[in-house]
Write a structure and sequence with these properties.
mainly alpha; two-stranded parallel sheet
Amino acid sequence: GVFAAGEVAGGLHGANRMGGNALSETLVFGARAGTAAAEWAKGSSPGDPRSMLLLLNERARKWEGGKSTGSDFREKLCKLMWQDGGILRNQEGLERALATVKEMFSESLGSSVEHSPREVRNVIELRSATRVAALILDGALRRRESRGAHFREDFPKQDDDNWRGRLQVHLTSNGEEVWHFQPE
């Protein structure tokens, strides 16, 4: 039930996105995502917002006693993604970063929460950010080539014969990631 458009969804231009393209892309695909979300919502149950709040509060109680604050984690994650998951990449750095991000996700489960909505939001944002970072790093590890502005030191050439297309991931109903490559 999550729909996205624009840069957050990867976009039409991928690694070669030019400044300014994102706005028109967001308008076109935002409308398409909105229409698809509305169609999806027609066939789904709205659920009970109170039960979601109870679930979040229950999880917040389990997160007490952690070692770091949300801002500590956020700063560490940004630095890690810039150093090992940024434009210049290699297998060793990507693997190191992925292991660290997975540790950070586990640690975030024990992050200190004072039961305020702001703290609960910070922990949820951190968990989401580490999940997205892990997907980015895993995708970069799987793509064994350099493409656009993203450079793999260990695979310095663009390889259209094997990698021209999209690497996609989806979750199964039991939460497992399934990766596949869709050639153009």
